[in-house]
C-alpha cells in the first residue's frame, strides 16, 4: 500500500526550477506529466517583472507555472499589481506561493505575506489559489505562536476573498518530524491540503548549504552527530525514504490531508524530474 501511495503522491507533486535553469524547461517537461506545476523561486536581485520571462518559458514547455511572491522583496505596489495582472492575463497563472521572503528588511511596502493578503491585491488580480508556507522544524526567525496566529488570519482572509488555499512545507531531514507536523495540521486544519516539501536527489554538501539558508539545519546537525555515514544516507542522494514515510502515514491515517509532494531541486531540475519519473514508472 505504501508503494502505491508513494506513486500517487509523486503523481500529484510539484517541482521547483530556478530561473537560471529555464533553458532546461523542455527537458523537464518531457519527464513529467503534462501541466505539472512548476514553481519559480524569487531570487535576490531579480526584479519581479523579470519573473514574467520565467513564467512564459515554463508555460511554453507545457507546464503550469507557479511563481513565488516574496512580500519583503516587493519594491513597489503598482509594479506588483502590474506583475500579477500580466502573469494572469498573458500566461494563465492561477496560483502563487505567497511567502514573506528572507530579506532582513522590507524593500518596499510589505513587511510580510499576511499584509499582501490583507490588501486583497492577489484576489483582485484574478489569482484563484494561494500556497502558504509550513515549517515542520519551526520558522527560523518567527516564534511559533506568531506563525499560528498568522495562519489563522490567512485562513480567514482566503475564505473572505474566495481564494483557494493550500500549504507547502519546508523540507526536513527528519521524516518523523514531518509526519508529526502533518498530523497536527490534520487535527487543527482538516480542510487545508498539504504538499510535503522533499529535497530532491542532491549532493550532500550542496544540500547542507541550502539547509543552512532555509532554516532546517537543526535536524541536519542532529543526523550529522550520529555519524557522517548516517547523515549522508539520509541527506540525500536518495530521498525515497522521505516519500515512503509520508506514504505510510497517509496509508495508516484516516483524514490525512497530504495531497502530494513539493520537490526542491536545488539547481538540479532534470535530475530531480528524472527521479520523479522513475517513481511514477515503477510497477
Cα distance, first to last residue? 12 Å
**Strand segment tally:** 8
Main pleated sheet: 8 strands, parallel, barrel
Instruction: Give the strand line-up of the largest sheet.
Output: 1-2-3-4-5-6-7-8
The dominant shape is globular
Total domain units: 1
Structural commentary:
With 283 residues, this protein is α/β, with parallel strands linked by helices. It has a single domain (2-281), classed as TIM Barrel. It has 13 helices and eight strands. An eight-stranded parallel beta barrel has the order 1-2-3-4-5-6-7-8, surrounded by six helices. Helix 1 (2-11) crosses helix 13.
In short:
By secondary structure, the chain is α/β, with parallel strands linked by helices. The radius of gyration is 18 Å and the shape is globular. It has helices at 2-11, 25-31, 51-60, 77-91, 113-119, 121-124, 144-161, 175-188, 204-214, 217-225, 228-234, 240-252, 269-281; strands spanning 14-16, 37-40, 64-70, 95-99, 129-134, 164-169, 194-199, 258-264.
Amino acid at each position: 500500500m505504501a508503494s502505491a501511495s508513494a506513486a500517487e503522491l509523486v503523481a500529484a507533486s510539484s517541482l521547483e526550477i530556478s530561473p537560471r535553469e529555464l533553458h532546461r524547461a523542455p527537458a523537464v517537461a518531457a519527464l513529467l506529466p503534462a501541466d505539472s506545476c512548476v514553481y519559480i523561486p524569487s531570487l535576490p536581485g531579480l526584479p519581479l517583472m523579470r519573473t514574467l520571462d520565467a513564467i512564459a518559458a515554463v508555460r511554453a514547455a507545457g507546464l503550469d507555472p507557479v511563481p513565488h511572491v516574496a512580500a519583503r522583496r516587493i519594491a513597489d505596489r503598482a509594479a506588483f499589481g502590474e506583475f500579477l495582472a500580466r502573469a494572469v492575463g498573458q500566461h494563465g497563472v492561477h496560483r502563487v506561493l505567497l511567502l514573506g521572503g528572507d530579506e532582513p528588511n522590507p524593500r518596499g511596502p510589505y513587511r510580510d505575506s499576511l499584509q499582501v493578503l490583507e490588501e486583497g491585491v492577489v484576489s483582485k488580480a484574478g489569482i484563484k489559489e494561494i500556497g502558504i508556507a509550513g515549517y515542520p522544524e519551526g520558522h527560523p526567525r518567527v516564534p511559533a505562536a506568531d506563525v499560528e496566529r498568522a495562519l489563522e488570519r490567512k485562513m480567514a482572509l482566503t475564505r473572505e476573498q474566495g481564494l483557494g488555499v493550500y500549504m507547502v512545507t519546508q523540507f526536513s531531514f527528519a521524516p518523523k518530524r514531518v509526519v508529526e507536523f502533518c498530523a497536527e495540521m490534520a487535527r487543527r486544519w482538516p480542510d487545508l491540503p498539504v504538499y510535503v516539501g522533499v529535497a530532491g536527489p542532491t549532493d550532500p554538501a550542496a544540500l547542507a548549504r541550502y539547509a543552512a539558508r532555509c532554516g532546517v539545519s537543526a535536524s541536519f546537525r542532529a543526523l550529522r552527530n550520529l555519524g557522517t555515514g548516517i547523515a549522508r544516507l539520509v541527506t540525500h542522494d536518495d530521498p525515497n525514504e522521505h516519500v515512503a514515510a509520508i506514504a505510510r502515514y497517509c496509508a495508516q491515517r484516516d483524514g490525512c490531508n497530504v495531497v502530494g509532494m513539493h520537490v526542491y531541486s536545488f539547481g538540479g531540475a532534470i535530475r530531480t524530474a528524472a527521479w520523479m519519473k522513475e517513481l511514477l514508472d515503477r510497477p
